[in-house]
Amino acid sequence: MVGGGEGAYIGGIHRFAARLDNHFDLIAGAFDVDAERGRDFASKNFIDRDRSYGDYVEMIAREQARGDRIDIVAICTPNHTHFPIAKAFLEAGFDVICEKPMTTTIEDAIALHELAQTTGRFLGITYTYSGYPMVHEARAMVARGDLGAVRVVQVEYPLEWMATGIELQGNQQAAWRTDPKKNGRGGSIGDIGTHAYHLAGFVTGLKAEAVAADLATFVEGRALDDNAHVMIRYEGGARGLLWSSQVAIGQSNGLRLRVFGEKASLIWHQEQPNELIFTRLFGAPETIKRGREDLTDGAGVRTRTPPGHPEGYIEAFTNLYSGFAAIVRARDEGRTVGPFGEGIPTSYDGLKGVAFVDAVVDSHERHNGGWLPLQFA
Ligand code: NAI
Questions:
Q1: How do residues 335-350 score in pLDDT, each as one tens digit?
Q2: Which residues does a 6 A CB cutoff place in the pocket of ligand 1?
Q3: Which of 32, 139, 214, 359 is the most exposed place for a label (fewest CB within 10 A)?
Q4: Rg of the chain over all Cα atoms, to the nearest angstrom
Q5: In terms of DSSP bridges, do strands 72-76 and 95-98 run parallel, antiparallel, or are they unpaired?
């Protein structure tokens, strides 16, 4: 692992997810921007002293020289470091799991995607929400035509945690997220809008063609947007509306997707992730629950406990990790990838996310909110 040290957020979730299905052990790392703090953290986490590194450059050099080198690295650092770290590991022949957004610029995203292709290494992106079983069920339902042709896609990701200027009060996570050099051009849209965008595309299977955006910064002095409304035109005529907000008081983690087709609609809410609400034209809403035997294989393989025993965020993240393992193992053993590898986000999904943020910010900043085509969809 690179990053994810003392006081960090997502690194701990990666560690749970990597271990839950027994596909991975954590055996080496450069856990912190501060080498000493990183080594302390490694020792608390029972990492061998000779595999606890001061930085990722040392980690690559020393791991490369070992017979038992790591198979894959998880990059859990702030956005601006993803590109140099992922590039260096790919070039050194390692597979990579990289946090979203994949890079802070479109140029870097294109370069990293191409590097993954030319090196033949795996580059997985942790779009967490595509790991949920009921998100896979929703995707399968749209694909088999349960909703008919999709007409309208509403996706929102409201959060309240940055409703005040906490970046000036010592909050580590907010500090780099509000610094354009570290976060990239898109504030809320880059941080959580990318999750919402990926989720909408993942479930509907629709390619987005163009965006028109209105961004706002409500907290005084903040350099990046903390609220974004984006209209999306999808292939085939479907229309989308995406809202990301870091100032939505009362919303802990309110990611919600609603898809309306010509025959039916469905709703998935991240805070009730074990359920899908499905409604046929003029029908009563039906609650479809995780764990039911008549669900599709995509949901079934990603389910561990029976209905009524809730599964959540850690299991969804685990499903991504188990998908990464399935893809890498299938490649190395010359087998076809099983159901766990299906729909796993890779470098092209990372590139699409960065292209989306770029077009959204351009629409707002340079085109007065006008329509812009998406370069990668
Ligand atoms: P954080 O600030 O809590 O942790 C960052 C960690 O990276 C710290 O331990 C820091 O010391 C370390 N670090 C920074 N530069 C480093 C370097 N050059 N070498 C080694 N370590 C370094 O940040 P947080 O919130 O955990 O976010 C990290 C990444 O994860 C971001 O890209 C963010 O967008 C993404 N993220 C993804 C989520 C998801 O649902 N997939 C949820 C939250 C964050």
A1: 999 999 999 999 999 9
A2: 2-5, 8-11, 30, 32-33, 55-56, 76-79, 81, 99-100, 126, 128, 172-173, 176, 191
A3: 214
A4: 20
A5: parallel
Averaged pLDDT score across all residues of the chain: 98
Give, as one character, the DSSP assignment of residue 296. Answer: -
**pTM here?**
0.98
Q: Which tokens hold the place of 136?
A: 């896979």
How many Å lie between the centroid of ligand 1 and the Cα of residue 173? 8
Type of residue numbered 186: G
| Beta carbons within 8 Å of 158's beta carbon, 6+ residues apart | 243, 244, 245, 248, 251, 254
Tell the residue nearest (CA) to atom 39 of ligand 1.
128
Amino acid identity of 248?
Answer: A
Q: Compute the distance from residue 79 Cα to the ligand 1 centre, in Å.
A: 7
Contact 346, 93 (CB under 8 A): no
pLDDT tens, residue by residue, 95-139: 999 999 999 999 999 999 999 999 999 999 999 999 999 999 999
| Residue 84, C-beta contacts closer than 8 angstroms, at least 6 positions apart | none
Cβ count near 256 (within 10 Å): 19
Q: Are 314 and 304 in contact (CB under 8 A)?
A: no
Determine the Cα–Cα distance for residues 115 and 87; give it in Å rounded to an integer: 7
Residue pLDDT, tens place only, 286-332: 999 999 999 999 999 999 999 999 999 999 999 999 999 999 999 99
CA distance 295 to 317: 20
Nearest Cα to Cα of residue 139 among 148, 130, 151: 130
Which amino acid, one-letter code, is at 62? R
Residues 6+ apart with CB under 8 A from 83: 102, 103, 104, 105, 108, 111, 112
Encoded amino acid at 253, one letter: N
Of 191, 122, 222, the closest CA to residue 354 belongs to 191
- pLDDT over 90 percentage in the chain: 100
Amino acid 259 reads: V
- Across the strands, what pairs with 98? 75, 125
Tokens 């077009």, located at residue? 359
In angstroms, what is the span from residue 8 Cα to ligand 1's centroid? 6
